[in-house]
Write a structure and sequence with these properties.
Length: 85
Amino acid sequence: MIKNDEIFGALNPNQGVQGFMGMTLLFLAKHADLIDPMNDHVATGQNPMQVPYVDNGFSIITKENADYFYWDEYVKRRGSKGVNE
């Protein structure tokens, strides 16, 4: 419908990525010892888990980028069977 100019656009909240990134960040915040950047975080006592921005997958789908949001193409690219897996 977007590509046929029947609607202007749509929102893709990408809940899977949001949940995954949220849990990953929480895990790393709890287990900061797993993060070992080459800096002085140990000497200063700072937690190296400081992420100011994470791309959580939220997108505005338009006619120009709609081709990237076809479920079957996404599943094929990931080598997955999708919801039937």
